[in-house]
Amino acid sequence: MTQIFTLTLSPSLDSATTTAKIYPEGKLRCTTPIFEPGGGGINVARAVVYLGGQANAIFPIGGPTGEHLKELLDREGIHTETLRTQDWTRQNLHVHADNSGEQFRFVMPGARLNEAEFDQLVERVHQIPAGSILVISGSLPPGTAIEKLTYLMQQAQAVGLQCIVDSSGEALKACLDVGGLALVKPNQNELSALIGRPLDNPDDLRTAAQELVQRGAAERVVVSLGPQGALAVDRHHCVQIVPPPVKKMSTVGAGDSMVGAMTLKLAQGADLIDTVRFGVAAGSAATLNLGTRLCSLEDTQRLYNYICKSSQ
């Protein structure tokens, strides 16, 4: 199986808690927080491992929060390669309000990477074996220019890596401008912004995704459609995979679970349809959990089997 590596430029230590209700001024009594690793690439690596694969997570850490993050990943058996930084790793907060069922996500600015620290991450990318899959996922740290991400992408492709990108805005656009990506997973709004026009119906979505493939920006474009699953396009196929209805507890972690599942399938040599079926199943499985928990193998396999049977 093809080796999988992930790169997270802006990791986090995530804490999740619940309170009776959210209101101003007063003290909000909360349950004991649960700490979990956070950051796009880190969660993709965790999802791959949860689903029975192997992945190597590369990311910077700083301060006690960074140490705590690495300790949590070590406990889960995730293979990590870390770079020590001057700035402390950020800590995010997720609060579930019991009375409304609403979830509030407080996301802090990521730790800055200085010039030398970023260059060390690029050097680590150079050392990844040719032919491996590299997933670059998550936001850019404050102060990191888009041009640095573009340079990193070019270096990764120069050493023969298959690059998957899960980002948004200018960062995603810059990566697509480099071209040659193995897979991207924009949602409908992100794809509309990339193409520069509204996408009001399924034909518009399909055409926009095909445009990215035809111009060589990415080999596979998977458009995330929330409860409607995903629309997937490559040079030979166009398919929409719809998940079964499930009772959603939280959407946190669904996107990373989906990318992790698709990455694992691609590493195993699966075709587009099977890859996206497994990805949609994992994304739906993650929504069954409260807080920041990702997909489980049991839930993902059950939903995957349902999707396969219903689409025959």
Secondary-structure topology with pairs:
Elements: E1 4-7, E2 12-19, E3 34-38, H1 40-50, E4 56-61, H2 63-76, E5 79-84, E6 90-97, E7 103-106, H3 115-126, E8 133-137, H4 146-158, E9 162-166, H5 169-178, E10 183-184, H6 188-195, H7 202-214, E11 221-224, E12 230-233, E13 238-241, H8 254-267, H9 272-286, H10 297-310
Parallel strand pairs: 1-4, 1-8, 2-6, 4-5, 8-9, 9-10
Antiparallel strand pairs: 2-3, 6-7, 11-12, 12-13
Helix pairs in contact: 1-8, 3-4, 4-5, 6-7, 8-9, 9-10
Family: Belongs to the carbohydrate kinase PfkB family.
Keywords: ATP-binding, Kinase, Nucleotide-binding, Transferase
Domain Carbohydrate kinase PfkB: 15-296
Written account of the structure:
This is Phosphofructokinase. Belongs to the carbohydrate kinase PfkB family. Keywords: ATP-binding, Kinase, Nucleotide-binding, Transferase. GO terms for molecular function: 6-phosphofructokinase activity; ATP binding. InterPro entries: Carboh/pur_kinase_PfkB_CS (IPR002173), PfkB_dom (IPR011611), Ribokinase-like (IPR029056), Tagatose/fructose_Pkinase (IPR017583). With 312 residues, this protein is α/β, with parallel strands linked by helices. It has one domain (4-310): Ribokinase (UDP-N-acetylmuramoyl-L-alanine:D-glutamate ligase). Helices cover 40% and strands 21% of the residues. The chain contains ten helices and 13 strands. It has helices at residues 40-50, 63-76, 115-126, 146-158, 169-178, 188-195, 202-214, 254-267, 272-286, 297-310; strands at residues 4-7, 12-19, 34-38, 56-61, 79-84, 90-97, 103-106, 133-137, 162-166, 183-184, 221-224, 230-233, 238-241. Strands 5-4-1-8-9-10 form a six-stranded parallel beta sheet, sandwiched between helices. Strands 3-2-6-7 form a four-stranded mixed beta sheet. A three-stranded antiparallel beta sheet has the order 11-12-13, sandwiched between helices. Strand 4 (56-61), helix 2 and strand 5 (79-84) form a beta-alpha-beta unit. The protein is globular, with a radius of gyration of 19 Å.
